[in-house]
Amino acid sequence: MKITRKDIANYKLLKVLLEKDQKKLERYVANQPSAYSGKVYGSNPGFPYQPRGFTVTGCSDFEIAQLKDWEQKCREMEVKIQDDIRRLNELELAIDTMIANAKDVEDKAILEYTKDGLSQYEIADILCMERSTISKRLSKYVSQ
């Protein structure tokens, strides 16, 4: 996998957005629309007493359709979250592999700080380098 500067910059953002999506899904599941249905059993009012079963619903057809729509949307959101988790894991593995393959310790530090979301100016201050040096060293490992 070829890593770009945008991939590294978006790595941290993707992680934050994924956590927010998971919290949203948990909130949606906790606030499920209510729809009641069940069986009621009884018997004939006169002799001979015979058992009878009735299905009772506490909601309209519209509410049932709304519940099915809600379930479908929750499933779609779960699939999207799983895709984002897979993409995040692949990206993290590719970035970590790139960092591990860096030969220079300063280059490894630059890549780690970039992965952590620091700007080139902040990295330059930490490592006591020029910002242009940080940019040049990053360009050895990542494409535009």
Which class of secondary structure composition applies to the elements?
mainly alpha
Question: Could you give a short account of the major beta sheet?
Answer: 2 strands, antiparallel
How far is it from the N-terminal to the C-terminal residue, by CA?
14 Å
Instruction: Tell how many strands the DSSP assignment holds.
Output: 2
Assign an overall shape.
rod-shaped
**Order of H and E elements:** HEEHHHH
Helix segment count?
5
The largest beta-sheet arranges its strands as: 1-2
Walkthrough of the structure:
With 144 residues, the protein is mainly alpha-helical. Helices cover 67% and strands 10% of the residues. The protein has 5 helices and 2 strands; from the N terminus they run αββαααα. A two-stranded antiparallel ribbon has the order 1-2. A hairpin with a 7-residue loop joins β1 and β2. The radius of gyration is 28 Å and the shape is rod-shaped.
Structure characteristics:
single chain; 144 residues; mainly alpha; two-stranded antiparallel ribbon; 2 strands; rod-shaped
Write a compact overview of the structure shown.
The model has no long low-confidence stretch (mean pLDDT 86). The protein has helices at 5-30, 61-101, 105-115, 120-127, 131-141; strands spanning 37-43, 51-57.
Sequence-ordered SSE layout with sheet pairings:
Layout lengths: L4 H26 L6 E7 L7 E7 L3 H41 L3 H11 L4 H8 L3 H11 L3
Antiparallel strand pairs: 1-2
Helix pairs in contact: 1-2, 4-5
